[in-house]
């Protein structure tokens, strides 16, 4: 056998082995589900009594949340896990929001995998331990994000891996100061009611409008973009911040009157549910008046969500930014 023939046979052998190995590695099997994390793992927000959140990042401050449920005191405490700092009181509404953001996340799909390291689940980027009155402890492993704004999650004692909205990561990485109350007076305040409740992770379109002027934001495979008045790519974090900010709004005061001036109307569209419509009135320092489509009342809420809204309007190139600026100008002139 000549050298060329031997080389050719060897080359064909190498190619055959490579093809065999490639074909033998089966892709992860995927199944869809409509369950939330709480439904899948039988964890109720109301029954949670302790939560630990630990991360591998150098700038991640792991923490523990502990429920206080005695005859004389109700509430939550928070403390770092690594350092020996004392526990401090945590705002109950903030803790409840975190638990809802974790446990009420809808599972997009489930996959069967054999190598967890491929999904950054071994070791995990973040670990969340949840204790309830009926379940001793459930540990969730949070892995890497995907291109479609999902993140891999796995319950440590369960075989399958599932994907949920990647906003879960930012929800878990909130600074401890976000949970803390500022004084004893705050502890006596009743929990403020949420302004609205919609599945922000399932939102696929946002319409911002006044009169004939309109900006339409559409969710696509690679993220978000405006499709009206023109096609412009949007940063996913900006849209996520807007959705999170609106979903987290709580009623600071019920003004018990109709909304006199509507500066902008924002409509959030979620599949198979009625659109959520938020009407913006006038800004007042750190607050803004808002109204809902299904209510004649006017509410005062925190205005933090206006920042990502302004970014989207500027990016779109729409004349609606003038209406937004007027809202802010009016607020400045009244202070």
Mean pLDDT: 82
Number of helices: 8
Q: Biggest sheet: strands side by side, in what order?
A: 1-6-10-9-8-7-2-3-4-5
Please bin the fraction of helical residues: 25-40%
Total count of strands: 19
Structural class: alpha+beta
Give short descriptive properties of this protein.
nine-stranded antiparallel β-sheet, alpha+beta, ten-stranded antiparallel β-sheet, disordered C terminus, 335 residues
Word description of this protein:
With 335 residues, the protein is an alpha+beta fold. The chain has two domains: 30-187, no CATH class; 200-334, Dna Ligase, domain 1, CATH 3.30.1490. Helices cover 26% and strands 33% of the residues. It has helices at residues 3-24, 37-41, 92-103, 167-172, 184-187, 236-247, 306-316, 320-334; strands spanning 29-32, 48-55, 63-69, 74-80, 88-90, 109-112, 126-132, 138-145, 150-155, 161-165, 203-210, 213-220, 223-228, 232-234, 253-254, 264-270, 276-284, 287-292, 299-302. The strands form two sheets. The chain has a ten-stranded antiparallel β-sheet. The chain has a nine-stranded antiparallel β-sheet with strand order 14-13-12-11-16-17-18-19-15. A hairpin with a 3-residue loop joins strand 13 (223-228) and strand 14 (232-234). The radius of gyration is 25 Å and the shape is globular. Residues 19-27, 184-190 and 330-335 have low confidence and may be disordered.
Secondary-structure topology with pairs:
Layout lengths: L2 H22 L4 E4 L4 H5 L6 E8 L7 E7 L4 E7 L7 E3 L1 H12 L5 E4 L13 E7 L5 E8 L4 E6 L5 E5 L1 H6 L11 H4 L15 E8 L2 E8 L2 E6 L3 E3 L1 H12 L5 E2 L9 E7 L5 E9 L2 E6 L6 E4 L3 H11 L3 H15 L1
Antiparallel strand pairs: 1-6, 2-3, 2-7, 3-4, 4-5, 6-10, 7-8, 8-9, 9-10, 11-12, 11-16, 12-13, 13-14, 15-19, 16-17, 17-18, 18-19
Helix pairs in contact: 6-7
């Amino acid at each position: 056998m000549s050298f060329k023939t031997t080389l050719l046979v060897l080359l064909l052998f190498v190619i055959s082995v490579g093809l065999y190995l490639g074909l033998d590695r089966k892709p992860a099997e995927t199944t869809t589900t409509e369950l939330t994390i709480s439904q899948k793992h039988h964890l109720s927000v109301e029954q949670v009594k302790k939560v630990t959140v630990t991360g591998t990042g150098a700038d991640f401050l792991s923490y523990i949340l502990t429920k206080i449920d005695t005859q004389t005191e109700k509430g939550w405490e928070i403390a770092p896990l690594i350092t020996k700092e004392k526990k401090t009181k945590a705002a109950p509404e903030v803790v409840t929001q975190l638990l809802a953001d974790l446990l009420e996340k809808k599972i997009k799909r489930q996959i069967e995998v054999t190598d967890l390291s491929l999904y950054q689940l071994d070791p995990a980027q973040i670990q969340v331990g949840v204790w309830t009155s009926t379940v001793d402890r459930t540990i969730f492993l949070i892995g890497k994000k995907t291109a479609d704004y999902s993140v891999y999650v796995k319950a440590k004692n369960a075989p399958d891996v599932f994907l949920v909205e990647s906003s879960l990561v930012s929800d878990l990485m909130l600074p401890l100061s976000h949970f803390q109350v500022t004084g004893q007076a705050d502890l006596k305040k009743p929990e403020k009611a949420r302004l609205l409740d919609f599945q922000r992770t399932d939102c696929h379109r946002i319409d911002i409008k006044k009169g004939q002027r309109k900006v339409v934001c559409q969710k696509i495979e690679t993220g978000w973009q405006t499709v009206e008045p023109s096609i412009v790519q949007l940063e996913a974090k900006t849209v996520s911040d807007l959705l999170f900010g609106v979903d987290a709004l709580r009623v600071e005061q019920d003004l018990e009157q109709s909304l006199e001036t509507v500066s902008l109307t924002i409509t959030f569209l979620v599949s198979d549910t009625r659109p959520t419509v938020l009407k913006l009135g006038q800004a007042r320092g750190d607050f803004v008046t808002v109204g809902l489509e299904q209510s004649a009342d006017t509410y005062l809420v925190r205005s933090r969500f206006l920042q990502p809204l302004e970014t989207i309007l500027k990016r779109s190139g729409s004349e609606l930014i003038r209406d937004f600026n007027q809202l802010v100008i009016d607020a400045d002139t009244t202070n």
